[in-house]
Amino acid sequence: MTFDTIIIGGGHSGLRKGVSLLKEGQRCLIISTGESSRPFRDPDWSQEIERHYFEDLGGVWLDDRVLRGVFESDNEGDMLLYVLTEKGGAKALSAEQFILATGSFYGGGLAADPLHVWEPVFGLDVFAEGAHKDWVNPDFFAPQPFMEFGVRVDAQHRAMRNGRPVLNLLAFGSVVCARDAR
Fold it and tell me: What is the pTM of this model?
């Protein structure tokens, strides 16, 4: 199946971007599992209401998990050709543009063990500074260093992979390195 845009992540950022793209006339697919962390910050926001609005505008929602992407490289950077999902098996989902909006740790957009932080779907470059002991501030109410961790992006918000931009993969929301998002 081919779309203009495939958004990976159906939380606040993914749904807002999907609605915007549909209003521009694009064919848009959102691939998402689980709930958004947004209700913890904004109890008035409803993923269900936003999802129905997205679908009413003609968007396609797929309750699934992206396992990996297939890339092609050239001199300028990488291109994401298609993604494969858990339920879809070998069925490729392709688009002109992809958007990563999976959230950070809570949404599964970032994963960590005591030594590393990584982006689990595409192996994108991640900013994570210091040793494990430096990732948190002992003062619970102080800013927490791990909250700045995230996928590296260039000035056009293209995700970085092996130090090079993925030309058709944008990253938005809390999956993005806070320092790069500024």
Answer: 0.89
CA distance 13 to 173: 6
What's the rounded Cα separation, in Å, for the pair 141 and 157? 30
Q: Is 21 exposed, middle or buried (0-12, 13-18, 19+ CB in 10 A)?
A: buried
Q: Find the range with the poorest average confidence among 9-18, 80-89, 161-170.
A: 9-18
Place of tokens 């595409």: 122
Q: Is pLDDT above 80 for 11?
A: yes
d(CA 168, CA 182): 21
Instruction: Provide the CATH topology of domain 2-181.
Output: FAD/NAD(P)-binding domain (3.50.50)
| Burial environment of residue 42 by CB neighbours within 10 A (0 to 12, 13 to 18, 19 or more) | exposed
pLDDT digits (tens, 9 = 90+) for 37-69: 444 455 565 678 888 899 999 999 999 999 999
pLDDT digits (tens, 9 = 90+) for 108-155: 899 999 999 999 999 999 999 888 888 888 998 988 888 889 999 999
Extents of the domains making up the chain: 2-181
Amino acid in position 34: G
Q: Are 47 and 10 in contact (CB under 8 A)?
A: yes
Are the C-beta atoms of 3 and 60 separated by less than 8 Å?
A: yes
